[in-house]
Write a sequence for this structure.
């Protein structure tokens, strides 16, 4: 079963931005009637600014990393959904003009399959990644690792839409969502040439017919799916071989096919081409 791919959150940063430009961003947001909330504290970033445009879009702004204690030029970090950058492109244009560089930091890549969660199997390549649960959602990674490369959650998107927005979907909908954060920051203008390679982190499969699997193998797959037992390396290899055809989800291939189109909108909005 082929998955569809989307980006749920897109994070980027401007380098060497003066404080006056950050205050200018606040001033322009206020003049345009955007509701704002600012927090000033000594956390990961000294300034946090949260901007909304009605119910249409939001923008999280973080300015001056706590490590930046010298000079007067600092990092400005942005985080929102890719399409939301279009709503704030004019607001961000003065920042683009003064920044010394614009970089892609990371994003959440979502792989969606139209099936129930019980059919989705995700196995980490690094067995030190332990599975945890919250309700029906499965996690590889602890809460404080939420923004680290390879953090993964597998959840029932259909249930989430119903519980949070009251939207009813007439078919199963499961999501495998992984954080993609390159080891080194990538120029935003070059990000289209750097699709994620998440097969290196996880093996995934969507089992469309459990009845054709041998009983013992099906039990092993279910146990691995739920994190009950990850077995020995030999059994894990045999499970992956069983699931490889026709159930395997090729994260690398899926991302590579669609990556340029997925990053096109935020890149155009942030690089002045929108």
């Amino acid at each position: 079963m082929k998955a569809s791919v989307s980006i749920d959150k897109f994070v980027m940063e401007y380098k060497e931005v003066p404080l006056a430009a950050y205050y200018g961003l606040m001033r322009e947001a206020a003049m345009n009637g955007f509701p704002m909330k600012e927090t000033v504290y000594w956390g990961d970033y000294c300034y946090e600014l949260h901007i909304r445009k009605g119910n249409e879009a939001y923008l999280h702004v973080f300015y001056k990393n706590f490590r930046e204690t010298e000079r007067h030029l600092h990092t400005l970090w942005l985080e929102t959904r890719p399409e939301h950058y279009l709503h704030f492109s004019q607001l961000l244009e003065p920042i683009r003009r003064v920044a010394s560089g614009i970089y892609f930091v990371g994003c959440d890549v979502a792989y969606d399959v139209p099936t129930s969660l019980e059919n989705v199997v995700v196995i980490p390549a690094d067995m030190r990644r332990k599975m945890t649960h919250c309700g029906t959602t499965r996690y590889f990674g602890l809460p404080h690792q939420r923004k680290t490369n390879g953090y993964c959650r597998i959840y029932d998107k259909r249930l989430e839409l119903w519980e949070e927005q009251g939207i009813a979907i007439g078919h199963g909908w499961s999501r495998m969502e992984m954080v993609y954060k390159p080891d080194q920051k990538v120029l935003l203008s070059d990000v289209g040439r750097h699709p994620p390679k998440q097969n290196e982190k996880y093996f995934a499969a969507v089992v469309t017919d459990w009845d054709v699997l041998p009983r013992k193998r099906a039990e092993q797959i279910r146990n691995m799916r739920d994190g009950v037992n990850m077995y020995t390396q030999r059994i894990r290899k045999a499970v992956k071989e069983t699931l490889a055809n026709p159930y395997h989800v090729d994260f690398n291939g899926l991302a590579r096919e669609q990556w340029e189109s997925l990053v096109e909108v935020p890149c155009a909005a942030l690089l002045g081409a929108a």
Remarks:
- The chain is about 30% helix and 35% strand.
- The mean pLDDT is 94.
- The helical segments are 19-31, 89-98, 157-165, 215-226, 233-247, 251-270.
- The chain has two domains: 9-105+263-270, 108-257.
